Amino acid sequence: MIKEAICEGINVQDALEKAKAQLGLDDTAEYELEIIQTEEKKKFGLFGGRPAKVRVFIKDTPNERAEKFLRDVLDKMTLSSVEIETNATEENAVEFNLSGEEVGFVIGRRGETLDALQYLTSLVANHGEEPYIKVTVNTGNYREKREKTLEILGRKLAFKAIKTGRKTSLEPMNPYERRIIHTAVQKVNGAISWSEGENAARHVVIGPDPKVKSNRKGGYQNNRRGGKRPYNGGKKKSGAAPVNPDRVPLNEGGETGLYGRIK
Questions:
Q1: What three-state secondary structure class fits 30?
Q2: Which of 29, 59, 89 is the last residue of a domain?
Q3: Which of 6, 120, 170, 181 could, after both became Cys, cross-link 154 (CB 3.0–4.6 A)?
Q4: What is the pLDDT of residue 216?
Q5: Cβ of 218: how many Cβ atoms within 10 Å?
Q6: DSSP strand E in 100-190: where?
Q7: What percent of the chain has pLDDT over 90?
Q8: What is the CATH number of the domain that holds 153?
Q9: Which candidate, 201, 197, 190, places its Cα nearest to that of 243?
């Protein structure tokens, strides 16, 4: 994105100073200068003559655009006390880490506000001709904790599906979080996961894998009806549904981050 100012002055230097002031640039700022026309003095002090005219412009980077937008949004939310730390940890990627006493308002319910901020900030950062950059908006290690929680949930429900033979529907999630669940479930032999619903209502369902033969004998209903108990005192054999780290996970969205690449 280009910011520019076109100004006139009695000479080029005067026009330049006016343009810099209009853009809020100090003497150390970098800018590009285009001289549209030079000044001409009046003939005989009466006829003709013209002022100098220049164009001063600067190009802001995607990171600068994104940070400015994020700051403006937080200020509009009356969260001026929330601080932004910018970390460009790798090429074509930037992370904005938010901190402060009021940062809880930025996270929102199950991170929904934080996700929305990240989505909008990514739109602003990639509104230009530069290569696409991955934008992450985080606070502390919230996203890392959320990812760990989802992994544990996915594995827990996978084992539950194997044990009960029933499927479980989760709450609606964005593509990134659904992919975390799928990855966790698909590493457990005997369980599968898939997505149902459309748009904001799309959610993950976890159930037993019909291709895997169940090891359950008697089942839950038979035990309630007085069926025979196993000779080991009712204890289940360990390893009924081993974790298989080599099993290929069902991946939604490829290797992209939250919401995927925005086009």
A1: coil
A2: 59
A3: 181
A4: 57
A5: 12
A6: 134-138, 168-172
A7: 34
A8: 3.30.1370.50
A9: 190
Cα 158 to Cα 160: distance, rounded to the nearest angstrom: 5
**Enclosing domain of residue 24:** 2-59
Beta bridge partners of 34: 55
* Among candidate residues 169, 61, 70, 168, the one with its CA nearest the CA of residue 113: 70
- pLDDT category at 121 given cuts 50, 70, 90 is very high
End-to-end CA distance of the chain: 17
User: Does the residue 36 lie in any domain?
Assistant: yes
Phi, psi of 111 (to 5 degrees): 80, 15
CB-CB contact of 125 with 65 (8 Å): yes
Q: Cβ neighbours of residue 47 under 8 Å, at least 6 residues apart? A: none
DSSP string across 215-246:
--SSHHHHHHTTPPPPTTTTPPPTTSS-B-TT
Q: So what's the pLDDT on residue 239?
A: 45
Q: Are 124 and 65 in contact (CB under 8 A)?
A: yes
pLDDT at position 59: 78
Task: Name the strands in the sheet holding 2-9, side by side, starting at the edge strand that comes first in the sequence.
Answer: 2-9, 52-59, 32-37
The angle formed by the CA atoms of residues 155, 106 and 81, to the nearest 5 degrees, is 140
In DSSP notation, 132-170 reads P-EEEEESTTHHHHHHHHHHHHHHHHHHHHHHH---EEE
pLDDT > 70: what percent of the chain? Answer: 78
Give the number of other CB atoms < 10 A from CB of residue 51.
16
Of 21-25, 89-93, 123-127, 213-217, the least confident: 213-217
Joined together, the tokens standing for residue 29 give 């700022």
CA 105/CA 159 separation, integer angstroms: 35
pLDDT digits 0-9 by tens, 73-83: 999 999 988 89
The number of folded domains in the chain is 3
